[in-house]
Amino acid sequence: MDIDTRSAGSSGSSAIDIAPTGKALGAEVRNVDLKRLDDQAFAALLRAFHDHSVLLVRGQTLSDQDLIAFSRRFGELDWAPVQETGRRFVEGLPEIYIVSNVKQNGEPIGSLGAGEAVWHTDMSYLDMPPIASALYALEIPPVGGNTSFCSMYAIHDALPDDLKRRITGLKIKHDGTYNSGGFLRQGVTPTDDPRTSPGAIHPLVCTHPDTGRQMLYLGRRRNAYLVGLELADSEALLDELWTYVARPDFAWEHVWQVGDLVIWDNRCTMHRRDPFDDSSRRIMHRTQIKGTARPV
Ligand code: OGA
Ligand code: MN
C-alpha cells in the first residue's frame, strides 16, 4: 500500500521531502498532509518557504476550515477583499476569497473571471501588505489558467550595477485602483494618472524581514509611479525595470491539478495567470496572511 507514515504527524518525524523546482524559485513539498502537520514538520515547511519563496503541495483534501487552520500557522489572516460584485464570498468565513469564473444565477461566485491576470503582488496598495497568499485548487480547466511566479530577489540581483545605482533610494507608489484582472476595486474612483491614483508608497528596493535578502518591489505595472520623478521619467524607468520581469529565467510556471495547494511569499515574488476558456470551470479558494510591518 502506498501510505507514507512519515506524513502522519503522530510519528513526530519532520521528514517531509522538499523538491526544488530547479527554477529561480519554488519547491514541491511531498509526503505531507496539511491537515496533520506536527510542529517539526511545519518548521521544516516554513524553512522551505523562506528558501524557495513558493511551495506546492499536491494531493490535498482541504475543507475551507482546513485551509484556514493551515494558513493560520503562518500568522493572523486577512479578511478577503470584497468581490468585484460588492459581495462577500463565503458566508460565515470572511477569510476565504474565491478566484473563479463560475457563475451562479448569473452572478460570479468569485473574482478574476477567465481572462489573464497580469503580473502582480497581492494588495501591495496597503501600507502593510499581506505576508503570503495560499491558493487551493478545487476545480481546474483542462487547459489554460496556469499560474507563474517570479523571484524579486533574482530580478534585483540581476540588475546591472548602473541601474541599481539609479534606483537607489527611490520610492514607488503601488496602485489601488485596479486588480490584476483589470477590474476596478470596490469604492474606488477610476483614474489613470499614476501621480494621483490611490495607493501606498513603498521603497523600490526592500529587505526581506525574514531572509535579509534584497528584493525589487514592483507590485504591478498599471498606475505605478516613482515618487518625485517627472511622469515620463517614472514611466521610462519602470518600463526598463519591467523588462527583467518578463524574463523566463526568473520565473516558474505551475500547471494546476485539483488538490494542489500553493503558498507564495507575497513580499519577494509576483505572480500572473494565463487566461482560459470561459466555458470551462475553474474554482480556487484563497487565504491571505496579514501583513505585520511596512516594507523597508
Ligand atoms: C490570486 C491570484 C491567480 C490564479 O489569487 O491572488 O492572482 O491563478 N490568482 O488564480
Ligand atoms: Mn494575486
**CATH class assignment of the largest domain:** Alpha Beta
According to CATH, the homologous superfamily of the largest domain is: Clavaminate synthase-like
- Poorly predicted spans: 1-12
The structural domain count equals 2
Computed Rg: 19 Å
Approximately what portion of the residues adopt beta-strand conformation? 25-35%
Order of helices and strands: EEHEHEEEEEEEHHEEEEEHEEEE
Shape: globular
The count of strands amounts to: 19
Alpha-carbon distance between the termini? 50 Å
Bound molecules: N-oxalylglycine, manganese (II) ion
Structural class: alpha+beta
The side-by-side strand order for the widest beta sheet comes to: 1-2-3-17-9-19-4-7
Indicate the percent of residues in helices.
Answer: 10-25%
Mean pLDDT across all amino acids: 93
State the CATH architecture of the largest domain. 4-Layer Sandwich
Count of helical stretches: 5
The biggest sheet amounts to: 8 strands, mixed
Outline the structure in words.
- The protein is of the alpha+beta class and 296 residues long.
- Helices cover 18% and strands 26% of the residues.
- The strands form 5 sheets. The chain has an 8-stranded mixed β-sheet with strand order 1-2-3-17-9-19-4-7, covered by helices on one side. A 4-stranded antiparallel β-sheet has the order 8-18-10-16. A 3-stranded antiparallel β-sheet has the order 12-11-15.
- A hairpin with a 6-residue loop joins strand 13 (205-207) and strand 14.
- Manganese (II) ion (MN) binds at residues 120, 122, 180, 271.
